[in-house]
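With this grant's support, we have paired protein sequences with C-alpha cells. One protein thus recorded is set out beneath this paragraph:

_____
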Amino acid sequence: MGQGNFSMVAEFILLGLTESRELQIFFSAFFSIIYTAIVFGNLIIIFTVTFDPRLHSPMYFLLANLSFIDMSLASFATPKMIHSLASKHKTISYQGCMAQMFFLHLFGGSEMMLLVAMAIDRYIAICKPLHYATIMNHRAVFRLVLLSWTTGFVHTMSQMIFAMTLPFCGPNVVDSCFCDLPRVIKLACLDTYVLELLVIADSGLLSLICFILLLISYSIILVTVRLHSSSGSSKVLSTLSPHITVVALFFGPCIFIYVWPFSKISMDKILSVFYTIFTPLLNPIIYTFRNKDMKRSIKKLKNQHVSFRLTF
C-alpha cells in the first residue's frame, strides 16, 4: 500500500501512569511540587555560579550548564504531563508529540556528552594538576560545551528525520506519559523494523558508549591516585562521588529504555519518569549538599539578599 493512501493522525492519546482518577490527581499535585523544586534548585546553581567570582572555574561552568540542561530536560514534557493528569483530556497534537521527541533527545544527548566533558575536567584536574589551567582554558571549556550541544542536536536530528516521515493512519494511543520514539513509532502504519534497529544503534549505543567512557575515565582517576597516594584516594573518591552518583542515576534508566526499547516490560514507563523528572531534581541536591564551595556561596548570596532587603 502506498504512503499516499494513509490519513495522518492529528493527535495522540497519552495513557500516562495510571487509569485511577484519584492517583492521577495525586500525581498531578506531586509532580507539580517536584517540577517547582527542579526549576528552583537548578536556577539557584546557575545564579550562584554566575554571580560568585570564586566559582568562575571550568568545573562550575560545566555544572551550571548541566543545571540548565536538567531544567530543560524536565520542562520539555512535565508541564504537559501535569496538565493531562489534572484534566480528563489526555491528548497531544501531532506537532506537540514530534516536538517532545525532538527536545527529549536533544537535551538527553547533550547531557550525556556534558557528563563526559565533566569527567574529562576531573581527570585533568586530578591527574594533571600542574597543566590544568593551561589545558582547561576558556576556549577549551567553551568547545566542550559546544560539542555537547552539537552531539545532542545531531543525535536528535538523526532520528527525527525518519520519525517525521512515518505515516500514522489509525492507532494513536501512546502507552507513556509523554511522546518518545520507541513508543510512537510502534503506531506507524508500516513495518518499522529498520527504524527500531536505528533507535537501538543510535540512542542505545550513544548511551552505552558514553557510560563506558565515563567508567573508564573515573577508573583511571582512582587507580592513578591510588598508585601515587593511598591517603589521597579517599579524598578523591569523596570529590568524585557526586559525579559518579549522577552518572549512575542518569545512564541507568536511559540504557534500559534505549538498549531494550521494544520490550513489553511496563517498568520503562516508570524509568522514563525517573529519567526526566527525578534525575534533574537529584542533580542539584547531590552537587549542592556535597559541595562545600557551593553551600558557602549560596549562603553568602542569601545573606547579601537579606541585607539588601533590610536596607530598603
Notes: Residues 8-311 form a domain with the Rhopdopsin 7-helix transmembrane proteins fold (CATH 1.20.1070.10).
